[in-house]
Amino acid sequence: MNMGSVSAAAGTVKTLANVLFFGGVSVYGLTNSIFNVEGGHRAIVFNRVTGIKEEVFSEGTHLMVPWFDRPIIYDVRARPSLIQSASGSKDLQTVNIGLRVLTRPNPEKLPEIYRALGTDYAERVLPSIIQETLKSVVAQYNASQLLTMRELVSKDIRRILQERARFFNIVLDDVSITQLTFSKEYTAAIEAKQVAQQDAERAKFIVDKALQEKQGAVVRAQGEAQSAKLIGEAIQHNPAFLTLRKIEAAREIATTIAQSSNKVYLSADSLLLNLAENDVKAQAYPGNLMPAQQKK
User: Looking at residue 38, what is its pLDDT?
Assistant: First the structure.
């Protein structure tokens, strides 16, 4: 092997090494000079020389300087957070309250959020401000008011949370109370109170019913006494009234028997309709006077 062949081989290896080096650098530069921002996300860029840039990149593909620039992606969609808290009410009752909040970062303030809180801003901020807000709001209401004024309590919590979250450049979209329970002792006291109220209402109903029945009996007795008085006066002044009543009773008896499937034969006495005897008495004692009355 001569020196020319060795030199040619060395030149070929050197050329191949240069091609591989520059090719690798080119591939690295191309792959690291662009970054993508997905839907519902925003990006900021950290530069190794100048630090965090103020520009916020929206959805799409963007250019950056390889090695010097590094993109930081934020999810700006609303995310739910569930917080449980044990607070004290105004009347010193223990209240277990659960809160669900929907929060998202303010896209225009992402550089400030990264400088102050980083990418885990929600875990750093939300538990503390929600706990403090819940305790301050619940302490303004009695235990019974927390149940009857639940919507107003939720509005107060949302108003205070929005003010606190705005300080950290966090947007609060929704607040809802998912759980509201009390201690076992307070729950048992409420149930006992409800049972006592139901018993009192039942006793009141029984008393009112007895009074109404008593009044009804008095009215009935007065009506019967008045009816008896009127009937006695009618018989005294007009004996034919008794005959009219006999006729009405006979009609009722006849109607009942007629609707029966059995055949029954009744005399005038059985029908209380012995009108012939009355006619004889009327002829024997003119003037509608009975023997006892004539003696008087």
Answer: 94
User: Rounded to an integer, what distance in angstroms lies between the CA atom of residue 198 and that of residue 161?
Assistant: 41
Residue 179 CB partners (closer than 8 Å, separation 6+)? 84, 96, 97, 98
Helix or strand (DSSP H, E) at 257? helix 240-258
CA nearest 179: which of 79, 80, 85, 81? 85
| Cβ neighbourhood burial of 125 (10 Å; 0-12, 13-18, 19+) | buried
3 state DSSP class of 255 = helix
Give the position of tokens 């009410």.
Answer: 89
Classify residue 133 by its DSSP letter: H
How is residue 53 written in tokens?
Answer: 């840039």
Q: Quick: pLDDT tens for 139-162.
A: 999 988 998 899 999 999 999 999
* Tokens 């999810």 belong to residue: 75
Q: State how far the Cα of 282 lies from the Cα of 107, in Å rounded to an integer.
A: 116
Enter the tokens of residue 118: 């980083």
Sites in the chain below the pLDDT cut of 70: 1-11, 13, 19, 21-29, 239, 241-242, 263-296
41, 69, 77, 68: which is closest to 57 by C-alpha? 41
Say which amino acid occupies 173.
D
- How many Cα atoms are found within 13 Å in the side-chain-facing hemisphere of 224? 6
